[in-house]
Amino acid sequence: MYTSDRGMNKGSSQNSGNLVGLILAVLESEPMHGYGIAREIEKRSADALSYGEGTLYPALRGLEQAGFVQTNWDTSGSGPARKVYNLTPEGTLELARVRDAWRSYSSAVDQVLGVMPKAQTA
Amino acid sequence: MSMNFSESAKVARENYLAEVSDELRKSLSPVEVYDSIEEMRLHLNSMASAYVELGSQPELAMESAIQKFGEPTTISQQYASESNLDFQFGLAVSQLRVQFLTGIAGACLTLILAQIFPLTGMVSSSSLSIILVGTGFGLIVGLGGKHFREQPATYVLVLASILNFASLAHVLELSNSSVWRSTPWVPINLNIILNINAVVLGWMSTRLAAERTKRTPIFSIVSLVPAAICSLSGWILFTVMIWLDFGRHVDTTELELALGIGGIGGFFIGFVANYYRGRSLTYGLLAALVANLAACWLYLTFIRFGRIDMVWQQSLWFSLIAFSVGYLGSQVKQRMNSGPNRMVRT
Question: Does A106 touch chain B (CB under 8 A)?
Answer without folding.
Answer: no
